[in-house]
From TrEMBL:
It comes from Nonomuraea phyllanthi. Residues 99-206 form the DALR anticodon binding domain. Keywords: ATP-binding, Ligase, Nucleotide-binding. This is Anticodon-binding protein. InterPro entries: DALR_anticod-bd, tRNAsynth_Ia_anticodon-bd. GO terms for biological process: arginyl-tRNA aminoacylation. The lineage of its organism: Bacteria, Bacillati, Actinomycetota, Actinomycetes, Streptosporangiales. GO terms for molecular function: arginine-tRNA ligase activity; ATP binding.
Length: 206
């Protein structure tokens, strides 16, 4: 169940809630906005593969727990407006550097993965269960809602995604370190890197 499929049932993209480190949760006001009974809508959402639980809260919002948070990285690459950040100084105080360097790092991962023989077949998204991977997925999960928002706040969003990915890149590497063999978790993290690269603006050629 991808976020797009969930949005099709709800009639609008849901909003991710919390940190996702332990549980991947979305909330949705679709029943209120569409003026439809929340119960039947919740039942339709429960029928989606990958949905672990749906609760109708007292305020009418749906609280949706998904069992496959890695589905958040499955989307068509968006064409986002690139903010007019300066390229210099290349320090962590410059959001332009933070975002473009995130794109570069994700692109490097894809190249290194090919050179090191990281498997490129079926990806086991359930292996992205560490805190750093989950934080990246949590930010990516905001993408569908921001794409239809009147005020998407792209600048702040891109910085948050880049910072989350920098942490994951350094603390949950997508390519083997030292003499360790490449495994399924590396393949999953390479797929995550591809999703990040497709969102963050950066050089067209590296």
């Amino acid at each position: 169940m991808t976020p797009v499929e969930l949005a099709e049932v709800l009639g609008e993209p849901p909003v991710p809630e919390g940190t996702w480190e332990r549980e991947a949760i979305y909330v949705s006001a679709a029943a209120l906005r569409r003026r439809v009974p929340a119960g039947p809508l919740a039942e339709r959402v429960r029928g989606l593969a990958g949905v672990a639980a749906v609760e109708v809260r007292g305020d009418g919002f749906l609280r949706i727990v998904v069992g496959e948070p890695a589905e958040a990285m499955l989307f068509e690459p968006p064409r986002l407006p690139e903010p007019s950040w300066p390229d210099f100084p290349r320090t962590w105080d410059n959001p332009g550097f933070v975002v473009r360097y995130g794109h570069v790092r994700a692109s490097w991962v894809l190249r290194w993965a090919r050179e090191l023989g990281v498997p490129s077949g079926e990806v086991r998204g359930e292996l992205l269960d560490g805190a750093y991977d989950r934080r990246v997925l949590r930010v990516l999960a905001e993408l569908p809602g921001r794409l239809v928002s009147r005020d998407p706040g792209w600048e702040a969003y891109l910085v948050r995604l880049a910072l989350a990915y920098h942490d994951a890149h350094e603390r949950a590497p997508a390519v083997p370190v030292g003499d360790r063999p490449a495994g399924p978790v590396h393949a999953a993290r390479v797929r995550l890197a591809r999703a990040v690269r497709d969102v963050l603006p950066g050089p067209d050629r590296l």
